[in-house]
Amino acid sequence: MKIAFIGLGIMGKPMAMNLLKAGHALRVFDRNTAVLEEMAAAGATVCASSAETAEGVDVVMTMLPNSPHVKSVMLENDKLAEKMPKDAVFIDCSSINPDASREIAAKLAEYGIEMLDAPVSGGQPKAVDGTLAFMVGGKKEVFDKYADVLKAMGSSVVYCGNIGAGNVTKLCNQIVVAVNIAAVSEALMLGKKAGVDPELIYQAIRGGLAGSTVMDAKAPMIMDRNFKPGFRIDLHIKDLNNVMDAAKTCDSPIPLTNQVFEMMKILHADGCGADDHSAIAKVYEKMANTEITRG
């Protein structure tokens, strides 16, 4: 399949690489020229603009930071909606506001273009090994036709409902991840302060009810003081801002999310916005004047 891929950042680049490995023909664009050189070496066709990527493709795919960036590419500045083939489909893998997905889809419908919102979970490691979890909204028949494209990048591809449902599901995912990291940090800090090795606590509870994928991914990072970003604090703040908007729209209570959101804002103010979201542990360390380390 001929695919245009726009947005080759920490997640987009490995996702695009996996599409190439699956045998798809890729036309790519990003403002980072270094990553374009990597993509060219891997076999992608590098384009001079995002608009150029859309020529003659079956799918236009974006992996961009937030709603305004997707709107800019598709409808406002680059106007890919006017340039992509009318029988092509737009698949947005960005994590954006569900209302923005619905708005973009409505505008694309005026051009006769179908859209799927297909945000992902798993962070950079799962983007690299092609085991991302996709949560997808849109028409079921469109999902069925293009699910195999997503399966080239993910081990889980789940249809969640009409357009916007993918991003609603992703916001739910981000609540669970954020609160889980905070709970892991809180527990490991209690253990450390009470004189029990956090590593032993982690090993003891990870196989029981408290165990989780989040714990297995983030507890070792916290104890190793490794906050190299797989998913940055600032991006999680963006997602939780979208959670706030969505919750307000449907009057859903989010007290735990509000608490973790405030922690993330503290981290941003402390200059840690580019850290991995496991750096939530730093808030506990600051309050306790103790680092969560092994031993």
Task: Explain what you see.
Strands 3-2-1-4-5-6 form a 6-stranded parallel β-sheet, sandwiched between helices. Strands 7-8-9 form a 3-stranded mixed β-sheet. By secondary structure, the protein is α/β, with parallel strands linked by helices. The chain is built from 14 helices and 9 strands. Helix 1 (12-21) packs parallel to helix 7 (123-129), helix 4 (67-76) runs parallel beside helix 6 and helix 12 (233-250) packs antiparallel against helix 13 (255-269). The mean pLDDT is 96. The protein is globular, with a radius of gyration of 20 Å. The longest helix is centred in the middle third of the chain and has 29 residues, at 165-193. The termini are far apart. Helix 2 links the parallel strand 2 and strand 3 (45-46). The protein has helices spanning 12-21, 33-42, 50-53, 67-76, 80-83, 98-109, 123-129, 140-151, 165-193, 198-205, 213-223, 233-250, 255-269, 281-288; strands at residues 2-6, 25-29, 45-46, 59-62, 89-92, 114-117, 120-121, 132-137, 154-161.
